[in-house]
Design a protein that fits this description.
With about 190 residues, this protein is an alpha/beta fold. The chain has one domain (about 15-190): HAD superfamily/HAD-like (Rossmann fold). It has helices at about 45-50, 65, 75-90, 115-125, 140-145, 160-165, 180-190; strands at about 15, 55-60, 95-100, 135, 150-155, 175-180. Strand 5 (about 150-155), helix 6 (about 160-165) and strand 6 (about 175-180) form a beta-alpha-beta unit. The mean pLDDT is about 95. The structure holds magnesium ion and zinc ion.
Length: about 190
Amino acid sequence: MVKLPTPYSKTRKAVFLDRDGVINRNLNNYVQSIDDVHIIPRSLQAIANLTKSEYAIVIVTNQSAIGRRLMTPEIAQQINKFILDKIQSTKGVIDGIYVCPHHPKKHCNCRKPKPGMLIQASIELNLDLEKSWLIGDAITDIQAAIAAKANPILVATGRGADQANDLDNNKLAHVPFVKDLYDAANYILGHT
Ligand SMILES: [Mg+2]
Ligand SMILES: [Zn+2]
């Protein structure tokens, strides 16, 4: 007998990834060109490992350099394509990429720590946020995950080693803190 799937059976779990400081290096003056993209060691391998799992992989990135007029949306797209090509060449598959282009003064709903990008992705890609994770290098990533009811992990790459000192002050001492995306992926895959 064939069982018809319930609507819930279609819902996927996801791993959300911040981009700068998690996949590629964070720069003080923003990543503004392809020349600014420096892939963090082991991050592509981590994405390949996650790709083999049941998780969808979704990038959620604040790119206020667009709103600050330091970079055009077209350049931002080129940078994303450059990173996606690298991911693909190492057998990684990204299911979606969401960009907040806004200046912080716009007070939009998508700029992390707001959960807008995660919520939009959950609707468009049919994701179960409560069973999903977000890997980021900033307290604002962690706050976006919590606001979306997803599970956060802080990595020490990018701004993470500094930001970890503020976990306690933000009542986030319980948040897992690991070395890098590779260890974060292993943490998630060990918990499923
Ligand atoms: Mg970051
Ligand atoms: Zn925004």
